[in-house]
Amino acid sequence: MSVNATSKFDNLRQKYDFLFVIYYRGHWCPFCMAYLRVLQDLSPTITAAGGCPVIVSAQDEEHLAEVRSSSGYTGEAINDPENTLAKRLAADGIIAVAITEWQGYPHGLAQPAILVIKKDGSVMETWAIMNLGGAKDRPDLHQVWENINAKLNDKQPSYARFSNQRELDDLA
């Protein structure tokens, strides 16, 4: 299945002007589900700009229906239980998604991360969690999207630094 993760990622990248990728821990993480709800809210504007929201997890695909139910997220999803995509992205110098040992994840748990990458492979934004115990230490997705939208329109981004996701406490 994970060999397909890299192929699916490559196919999506060629199909859209850019991918707005969110790595999440799993269906059991309320902060991840809250983050995916925000991504779902932003999805129409991302799609209108020629992009594709994509969620990625090291969870088996059997949990995807619960993720969709819990978060309301309806877009593209990549399940990568062997973390093949995360390993390739790190090897290519694109983003280093943290992989930690975790019960129920034989090849490790991919930690939260953001990657916005264009069709041509140029990276517009990356962020990967550094505080592995800090589930709420994620950039505000609205601010990330504002910066990406500015860059797409050849404007100066509004945020040099993102605040933490403000909705997590309310949505989790």
Automatic annotation (TrEMBL):
Gene3D superfamilies, per the entry:
Glutaredoxin (3.40.30.10)
Q: Where on the tree of life does the source sit, at the highest rank?
A: Eukaryota
User: Single GO molecular-function term?
Assistant: antioxidant activity
List residues of the Alkyl hydroperoxide reductase subunit C/ Thiol specific antioxidant domain: 17-124
Protein name stated in the entry: Alkyl hydroperoxide reductase subunit C/ Thiol specific antioxidant domain-containing protein
Q: Which organism is it from?
A: Trichoderma harzianum CBS 226.95
| Upper lineage | Eukaryota, Fungi, Dikarya, Ascomycota, Pezizomycotina
